[in-house]
Amino acid sequence: MKPPLSLLNPSMLSGSGSLMWFRKGLRVHDNPALEYASRGSTCVYPLFVIDPHYMELDPNAYSPGSTRAGINRIRFLLESLADLDSSLKKLGSRLLVLKGEPSEVLIRCLNEWDVRKLCFEYDTDPYYQALDDKAKNYASAAGIEVFSPVSHTIFDPADIIEKNGGRPPLSYQSFLKLAGEPSFSLSVELSWMPPVGDVGRCEILQVPTLKELGYVEKHQDEFTPFRGGESEALRRLRESLSDKEWVANFEKPKGDPSAYIKPATTVLSPYLKFGCLSSRYFYQCLKDVYKNVKRHTSPPVSLVGQLLWREFFYTVAFGTPNFDEMKGNKICKQIPWNDDDKLLAAWREARTGYPWIDAIMVQLRKWGWMHHLARHSVACFLTRGDLFVHWEKGRDIFERLLIDSDWAINNGNWLWLSCSSFFYQYNRIYSPISFGRKYDPNGNYIRHFLPILKDMPKEYIYEPWTAPLSVQTKAKCIIGRDYPKPVVLHDTASNECRKKMGQAYALNQRLNGRVSEEYLRKLRRKFDEDEDKQEPKPRRQRQKLIK
Known about the structure:
23 helices; 547 residues; mainly alpha; Crypto/Photolyase_FAD-like_sf; deoxyribodipyrimidine photo-lyase activity; 7 strands
């Protein structure tokens, strides 16, 4: 299926200029804000602002990038902008790039340019909500029309919340019942655009390179294989849809997290995150495939089901104050997590001593992406499974390194996987040994991302510390020297985590979720005392292993 086309021609034009403010929605297809900006305008200013909040180099960060975004995501964004600029040029326009605090830059442009319409895609992220309020207030006071349609999601989260009496639905099934079948018409794709107007004194930039932004890429043997942009998004979509049987039979839990040469998913998540691909267009394409096959899977496991999970998390995030925190978040269990920066660093830097976990974290650092079940494994390991480190710490690392990092979905998944919200079966823990072995008994995924273990026999590849010294020597990998010993013993650590989660759940139930800082401190002290009583020696040994 091709995006619909419309012939917008010069004879349709009247009136003054429009400013199209791109943030996400970096596409021409199904872009109602861009269509509206072009309709009836003598000129259109397609604007993107390089925001230092996300893009400014942080020389002190633990990996190349800014404070909030790793270099893979910044590169993906720049590729997406370059592709958008190319698409706009084909329509007789171009992308205008400026640098600075977005609302200040936008207001300066509204002052400088002949603009009667301000158009931008509605965004539910708190950061953009604040920016948008400033922009709307200024535009309204200046007599400028504001058009901000919902097109990053299939449904309007505010509508779903209103249907539910002002509260977000807290389960996927209740969300589906409230949402029903979506009713939308895809925006027409423009075949022509009004020209860019006079930019006055504004210093317009080209889409910058990483080097021009101050980034120096360090040499590494492997980079993310995923290139940004609408053109690549539509190509990947066509490729996925061409295998109708695969689309019809897709079941999320059955994917292979160790498949890296040809990932077991569409890998469209980064394109949805930046709006290079319209979720509405993707949804309609999937529905068209379903119409032409005898049977297909259904939500929550189908591909349509995955899009609806995205809608669910967007809705809950939009309607939940402090969604990205434990404190002040009414839907989040209050748990006294460990504050152990050494364990966190071992997890982040792929030094846990568990090859399955470490290989995933290397893939995250190099590619900025990994399979959702791989994400589940490492998130469970960091939080309720083994290390008992706060989910917010892991969330921050994912937020920075993932190319598809999405505020609502990232926070929602960490709440889920840490059993802080949505999912409460904390006794079900992903094994850092057997879970990966089930999919990849030979350990090819580990051998690729952890080449130090490439010659380790498959009997020991998931537990190299159990290999006899003679085997380690032959494999040229001595555990404790060439590859770390485990930072914790999984069986012991997971049992301790279960006990802690049980006590934390009991406290939340007893206090009806109103757990104060003092209660959390008391429970934290009890956890520490129990550890000291039971196994002081292994605890000291753990600290020694991760130094």
